[in-house]
Amino acid sequence: MLRVYLEFAKKSFQKRMQYRIANLAGLLTNFFFATVRILVFTAFYAAQTEPMPLDLNEVITYVCLTQAFLMVMPLWGRAEIAETIKDGSVAMQLAKPVDFHGYWFADECGKSIYYVIMRAIPTFVLARFLFDMWIPLDLTVIILFLFSITLAIVLGAAINITAFGTVFWTLDATGIVGFAFTLSTFFSGFLVPIALWPEWLQQIAAWLPFEGLVHLPFSIYLGKLTGGAALTAIFKQSLWVLIFVSLGRLILRRGFSHLVIQGG
């Protein structure tokens, strides 16, 4: 069965390879917004007189990382799951002798691998030269970061599948997905690093799953979480992955129990 899911991931990757011009446009967009955000933070730091939890170079690196991995970690989700349920084409997928939840996970993994190669790596390399992006030299930090960013990708996919699974009851995912988008974008630390937040707001973010999408892996990369703290962060990510995978499977199972497909 693992081979089957690997094939699904491969087909998902190949499908995205057809849109090379769109990917180039996405790269340019990434650099535009990275430049804008870096200029905003540079102006902010120029006006600061008090020491900050992150220095300017660390913030620039953080911004470059968020732009590089923007499409790798599906913060905003991809609506294919909701569309198949809404238009009834989910019936064709249910006819396949594979687990529906596993199928969508494989599809998400294929997309993420594509965006790692075609979006994250080029953005990372260019940012290193254009913005003097910091790169850790400690092999342990690099290994922990790679493990953590992998968990972030899996967590993002699990949250998306769970959110889109609500279409079984609503037939339109706009509301719940928009709400999830707002929460994940803000509380993940994508817009502003959580380290720069007020203490009380950081405490709220620490109890939510979304910091595992951006804040935790990038804090490991910057060396702000090391040793036991880094392992604790990875454990938190793993726990949230388990929770959302279980919740997503439960929602899909309950949804299929009363699914009605209209038409012939």
Can you characterise this structure?
This protein is mostly helical and 264 residues long. The chain has one domain (2-256). Helix content is 71%, strand content 0%. It contains 12 helices and no strands. It has helices at 2-16, 20-46, 56-68, 80-87, 90-94, 100-130, 139-164, 167-170, 174-187, 199-206, 215-221, 227-256. α3 packs across α6, α6 (100-130) packs across α7 (139-164) and α7 (139-164) runs antiparallel to α11 (215-221). The radius of gyration is 19 Å and the shape is globular.
Task: List the topology elements.
Layout: H1 2-16, H2 20-46, H3 56-68, H4 80-87, H5 90-94, H6 100-130, H7 139-164, H8 167-170, H9 174-187, H10 199-206, H11 215-221, H12 227-256
Helix pairs in contact: 1-6, 2-3, 2-6, 3-6, 6-7, 7-11, 7-12
Shape: globular
How big is the Rg? 19 Å
Query: What separation lies between the terminal Cα atoms?
Result: 31 Å
Q: How many extended strands?
A: 0
H-E string: HHHHHHHHHHHH
| Overall pLDDT score | 84
Range of helix content? over 70%
Low-confidence stretches: none
Number of separate structural domains: 1
- Number of helical regions: 12
Assign the structural class, choosing from mainly alpha, mainly beta, alpha/beta, alpha+beta, or little secondary structure: mainly alpha
- Strand-residue fraction? under 5%
Features:
single chain, 264 residues, mainly alpha, 0% strand, globular
Summarize the entry for a quick read.
With 264 residues, the chain is mainly α. It contains twelve helices and no strands.
